[in-house]
Amino acid sequence: xxxxxxxxxxxxGHCHEMAELVRLNYAKLSLCESCxxxxxxxxxxxxxxxxxxxxRDDVLLxxxxxxxxxxxxxxxLRVVAPEVKIMCLxxxxxxxxxxxxxxxxxEEMARREGVELTIMDLGEFLGCTISDIAFLSDYRRRICSVxxxxxxxxxxxVGSTRGxxxxxxxxxxxxxxxxxxxxxxxxxxxxxxxxxPVTQPLHVKSLPRIKPLIELTxxxxxxxxxxxxxxxxxxxxxLGRESKLNRRKKLMNIIESSRPGFxxxxxxxxxxxxxxxxxxxxxxxxxxxxTSCARCGMPSLRDLCRMCRLKDELQLKLKV
Length: 320
Ligand code: SF4
Ligand code: ZN
Hints:
Elements: E1 22-24, E2 29-31, H1 33-50, E3 59-63, H2 68-80, E4 85-92, H3 98-113, E5 116-121, H4 122-126, H5 130-134, H6 137-140, H7 143-161, E6 166-168, H8 173-185, H9 189-192, E7 198-199, E8 209-210, H10 218-228, H11 244-258, H12 262-285, E9 291-292, E10 299-300, H13 306-318
Parallel strand pairs: 3-4, 3-6, 4-5, 6-8
Antiparallel strand pairs: 1-2, 7-8, 9-10
Bound molecules: iron/sulfur cluster and zinc ion.
Residues 293, 295-296, 298, 304-305, 307-308 line the site of zinc ion.
């Protein structure tokens, strides 16, 4: 949905010819359709270059969820880095109706862009779906973190076995600042500095992760996807509707509405000012030492990785 505002009757702030269509308050800028689409693509291109995210010989494994972010990410990468090889992975979480729509849109999107798509069925991989897990009282409140753990594990597993050099995800400015807010509020700065545009791996079987959409907002990405007519699932996952992340996003939007540019400033300060200071402390006090899971060989801090322990717990609880 494009922000049609009664006051938007002037001309585009870039070309000064076409009628303005999209207002970006944080940039004090109104753009026509064509200039807005170029603005988004240029921004992603600049982010990729600024953080040296992609090399010509990279093989990217893109997490194609079927949502607006990953659909837009795939399309923009094909525009700004057409020479880079991209493989897509969709994890079917088994959430009734929501997962079916997401899977359908991911398949449409991969076909549209002519890229290879691998589908992993969580029910087959884990022996149960995210919905099955959400029925268990022990997991209901933290279902999104269980879901995130499963998706990260599968991405790393598939990426490292299929020859990918990097994992690329559609995390955007709203996602990242909502997470950062919580870490700053609770003083968990050692955790906060793990949130970066590029995350380097700590184990041979984990891959670098890049977030080319990190400087774009939810609104910009949705508007881009709509104007380009990209397929994406509009349904929301019923399990996470009231998740902590969504509540934080709402809070960020309230602050942003009275202080336009707040989210961009938070991200910039985090990356440029806080990270260099805290990283030194983190390196000196790193209490963890990564090893390989005794069962699956994937990165772990204990004898068994979190995923293998989760599988064991679920087997007991669900008798799968
Ligand atoms: Fe998974 Fe939570 Fe997202 Fe639903 S909202 S898909 S449970 S992370
Ligand atoms: Zn394991």
